[in-house]
Task: structure prediction
Amino acid sequence: MSGVRWRSGLDRVLLSALGASPPPPDELRRYRGEPGSPGLYLSLLGHVFDVSKGQKHYGPGGGYHFFAGRDASRAFVSGDFTETGLTDDVSDLSPAEVVTLYDWLAFYQRDYKPVGRLVGRYYSDTGQPTEYLRHVEATLAEGLKLKAQAEAESKLFPSCNSEWSASAGGRVWCSTQSGGVHRNWVGVPRMLFSPGSASSRCVCVQSSDPLKLDNPNLREYEGCPPLAESCTIQSS
Ligand code: HEM
Result:
């Protein structure tokens, strides 16, 4: 029999042969869809999926065959498909990148059959989440918080429309749909600075609300009347 065993119960776990080699990632290596292989699996954040219905992507000759039979979580975000890049070590990913990684996990949970958990970096041999996974989950929580803040900010301060031409120079302006935020106010263009950063982006600010206009991170465009809906950009 193969070295792959299943723990009973809902939370099935991919286990190595009892007390023997090969270690679990090597067991998963056999599931690459080659002739004679027991199946076509991949792992993401320690969740193992049967991806045989995506044979054209993950099977031999498929464009994403390198994901088969392993956990290459980091490459789902980095796009680094070299041997070095195909690793389950995601410790250098930013909170936003970890959010993207969990979007991929949601994709596999929706489209493919989960078949177990991989014993190793993310799950212990009893199927318990490791310290490492707890850390990744904390980074995910941080990423979701930052994403929610960014979404709230983009509603409060939607981006401006902008154009540039060599003859006329630059122009920024607001409309009821600029920044992809549909609203019943137009707003006036302002530069919005992130605290501690020298760079800014153009946002539309609701002019009827003095509290919003007084935000200390906003600055008016030079030479543009404070309540104008459109500003030409002075080239420096
Ligand atoms: C971080 C970079 C990328 C990753 C991790 C990635 C990963 C994937 C994966 C896992 C699939 C299979 C999805 C499934 O199971 O249905 C897929 C499909 C696909 N990818 Fe990518 N991809 C990346 C970048 C790109 C880029 C840059 C392009 C195009 C220039 C691209 C084009 C496609 C296409 C066209 C499909 C669908 C193929 C089909 O349905 O026949 N991907 N990608």
